[in-house]
Design brief:
Keywords: Membrane, Signal, Transmembrane, Transmembrane helix
CATH topology of the largest domain: Rossmann fold
Number of helices: 17
Transmembrane segments: 431-454
Protein name: Acid phosphatase
Strand content: 5-15%
InterPro entries: His_Pase_clade-2, His_PPase_superfam, Histidine_acid_phosphatase
Pfam families: His_Phos_2
Number of domains: 2
């Protein structure tokens, strides 16, 4: 993945002597994995190392007692579970990535250091050199996301799926589908064991890129690889087209529900950090692992993608990429502020494995210039597009079954109670309404035929007429 432009980026403060970090929320992509077109996908050793290294970095930043960014009151060396909240979708790659990250965040403390003495005097050392067990909550949203090639498959949001499908009928999509057909079909010999020729188009831009990208990382030999390596631009074009394809599916300004994954994440971030403030730091560090689609949705919703020189936020987040929301106060304090007016937030992003050499960069949110926002400003802007309750989610997504059934029933009852009060059931009223409407339509049609001498033509006959404008859009 091409690294992010730093034209608008600001380096992290060289010294934090005049501030205190109060809490943080980290959203991370998984590490390197096998290809989606060869499920089940699995975390590779390289991916394990990537997220473990990122965990090490955040350990040195937030956990280490001597760090200038140490989170106030966060336990160093030995984990205190009540201070952490860790979650990942019910997906093997994401759950394992979270585990690897946590191993770097709180490494083993040593067998002797974690030994416990029983009532009979026996000393029991912890297995695995004092490996620290940290539970990871499995969330249903985006479950199985690494085994699906279409990001909205995993959201369960009906309106988001419909909105994403509309991308396939957009002028942008149709233009790229036509202009890149030859490019994709020339690459058929590279992937012909997985794709058929009819699949070689922009419609499968991400799947084709993903398969070739995984092969370039892990396979010593690749069939017909000269077609990819013959030009330095070929692989870059595969990535650029995949970026465009996936951003189009993840976010659309005129159809915000397409970014439902980012909406849910925004609510979770605000809820956690608000709990940090309200609870005076009882919960200090939130960590969530998720798919690249959530990054793209959030980039669009928070105006990162639309900011000047922010073109790189249109791209798929690289393996082990992290977004971090850091809560702090502009003072060196030993106790939590008594008011949220003294609390500020900064957003950081690193597109890939995070290390001291490749540390996160601070970026402005919501189209603003300021790199540091007041808590009220941050929470207000996030709440403007977030979805933070089941009822809100059901309403926004148009879902009416499963967990949404109770809210659907409430809405139906409310609609019924605001009716005409004619004593008839909604079903009977619906039938009567349909019959009256049909009668009116037939009466109007009859008058048109009698007065105008027009002939009524069946729709299927009209569709078959030469030059008819009702032939419908071509299927991609």
């Amino acid at each position: 993945m091409v690294r992010l432009s730093t034209a608008l980026a600001a380096a992290l403060p060289a010294s934090a002597a005049a501030e205190t970090v109060l809490g943080a929320y980290i959203f991370s992509r998984h590490g390197d994995r096998t290809a989606k077109k060869t499920p089940p996908t699995g975390l590779t050793n390289l991916g394990y190392q990537q997220v473990h290294d990122s965990g090490n970095y955040y350990s040195s930043r937030y956990v280490a007692a001597d760090s200038q960014y140490h989170i106030l009151g966060l336990n160093s060396s030995t984990v205190k579970l009540s201070q952490l909240a860790v979650s990942a979708p019910a997906d093997g790659v994401l759950q394992n990535s979270a585990s690897a990250f946590l191993q770097g965040l709180y490494p083993p403390v040593g067998a002797n250091a974690s030994a416990q003495t029983l009532a009979n005097g026996t000393s029991v050392d912890a297995p695995l050199d004092g490996f620290q067990l940290i539970p990871i909550a499995a969330i249903s949203s985006n479950a199985g996301s690494e085994d699906t090639t279409w990001l909205q498959d995993a959201t369960g949001c009906a309106n988001a799926e419909t909105s994403s499908n509309q991308y396939f009928y957009s002028a942008e999509y149709e233009a790229l589908l036509a202009s890149t057909m030859d490019f994709y079909q020339r690459l058929y010999p590279v992937v012909n064991q997985t794709f058929s020729m009819k699949d070689m188009s922009f419609k499968n831009a991400y799947s084709i890129y993903d398969l070739i990208n995984v092969a370039e990382i892990h396979n010593a030999t690749i069939q017909s690889n000269d077609l990819v390596t013959a030009s330095e631009d070929t692989f870059h074009q595969l990535l650029t087209l995949a970026n465009s394809h996936e951003f189009g599916l993840a976010y659309n300004q005129s159809s915000p529900i397409r970014g439902v994954a980012g909406m849910q994440l925004a609510a979770e971030i605000v809820d956690f950090l608000n709990g940090t403030i309200a609870g005076a730091g009882k919960q200090k560090l939130g960590i969530q692992f998720g798919a690249y689609g959530t990054f793209l949705s959030f980039f669009g919703l928070s105006q990162l993608a639309g900011h000047a020189d922010g073109d790189n936020f249109y791209g798929i987040a690289d393996y082990a990429a992290t977004m971090t929301f850091e809560l702090y106060t502009d003072a060196d304090v030993s106790t939590y502020p008594t008011t949220a007016d003294d609390v500020r937030v900064r957003f950081m992003y690193n597109n890939g494995t995070t290390t001291v050499a490749q540390a996160p960069t601070v970026y402005p949110l919501f189209g603003q210039q300021s790199l540091n926002l007041s808590w009220a400003d941050f929470a207000g802007n996030m709440s403007a597009f977030s979805i933070g309750s089941t009822e809100h989610w059901c309403s926004a997504c148009g879902n009416s079954t499963g967990v949404c059934a109770p809210f659907s029933a409430t809405a139906a009852a409310s609609s019924s109670s605001s009716g005409n009060g004619n004593g008839l059931s909604p079903a009977v009223n619906g039938v009567i309404g349909a019959m009256v409407t049909l009668a009116v339509i037939l009466l109007i049609e009859g008058l048109i035929v009698l007065v105008g001498g027009l002939r009524i033509v069946r729709k299927k006959d009209l569709r078959s007429s030469p030059g008819s404008s009702l032939s419908g859009p071509a299927k991609a």
